[in-house]
Amino acid sequence: MTKTLFGRTSLIITSTMLIFLLATITIAGYFIILPVGKRNADDLASLILLSAQTYVELPPETRQDFVNELSKSHQLYWGTGNEPLAGHTHLKPHFNFMEKSLSDRLGSTVDIAPQVDNPDRHWVDIKISDKAVRIGFDQQRIGVSLPYVALYLILILSVMAILSSLLLVRKITKPVQNISKAAAIIGAGGIPNPLLEEGPKELAETAKAFNKMSTDVQSLLENRTVLLGGISHDLRTPLTRMKMALEMLPNSVDAGLSGELIEAVDNMELIIREYMQLTKGLEDENIERININTLIATIIKEIKPDKAQVIKVVGDTDYQLETYAVALHRVLFNLIENAISYGNKNPISISWKQQGDALELAITDQGPGIPEQHQEKIFRPFYRLESSRNRASGGTGLGLAIVDQIITRRAWKINLVSNDNGTTITILI
Question: Which strands sit side by side in the sheet containing 422-428, from one edge to the other?
Answer without folding.
Answer: 311-314, 348-355, 358-365, 422-428, 413-419
